[in-house]
Amino acid sequence: MQLSAFSAPGRFWRGNLHTHSTLSDGCLAPEEVCRRYAAEGYDFISLTDHFIGRYGYPIADTLPFRSNSFTTLLGAELHSGAMENGELWHILAVGLPQDFTAPNAPDFQPVAGQESGPELAARARASGAFVAIAHPHWSGLTLADARSITAAHSVEIYNHGCAIGCDREGGGHVLDLLLSEGRDLTLIATDDAHFTEPDHFGGWVMVKAEANDPELLLEALKTGAFYSSQGPEIRNVEIRDSEVFVESSAVASVIVQGRGQAALAVHGTSMTRTSVALDRFRGSPWLRVTVVDTAGKRAWSNPVRFENTATGN
Asked: Model pTM greater than 0.90?
């Protein structure tokens, strides 16, 4: 079994799915944000400004900044309702229509009677957006909160801005618990760039599509035809009878994770073709792969689920 990111037709396109501009609390104009990402070799971004009343509920019109070599997906970071800690939900929505109806979210504090976070996420997904749970660690997300967002396609496993600004970058724990409860989710690495600190060009997705086209990229995100990275490349992940076979750029560690305590790492020098034994994962209904280079930079495959196979249940 080969993961879809590596079996799908096309090539990989590098993109950032979480970015801010002067339309909300970023410090660069939308055109300059797009220029900088294009100059850094990105193929696409989604400019996801905070969709609240304070900023006029912006969905940035980035269509004028598209070119033959760079494109954009319309999006926003949505807010409405309180999590268990009493703070406002943060929900990433990529591929939003420009006429998406705003919630009653005047500012960064919840208000009585407003749409809940799960309701807003469901409405965004119904409108055609790719929906992700943003920065679970930074948000103080509980497992009950995470369970409630049934419309999510994905979870941020790495948020570069949160790593730089407060050392709360991860969402892997939340992701793995939801996977173990049967949820079908992918994972994304993002910047959450505001350009007010070195919070940019640190985490991205590599999306497999036949062209650098917004609709094709969005469809590939929804179907899981991508992987996420801070630097290393994953070139293939294949699940065989007795092993997980991983092809990558030169890395020092290849780690396979599954349900509960199922995890196994292989370490070495300049590894590009690595086999990890499947024995520890025979009872796991899912697994995913992380590769780590000598600088400590990671790349993550999306999870793969098994239904009544020899590897899974």
From this structure: yes
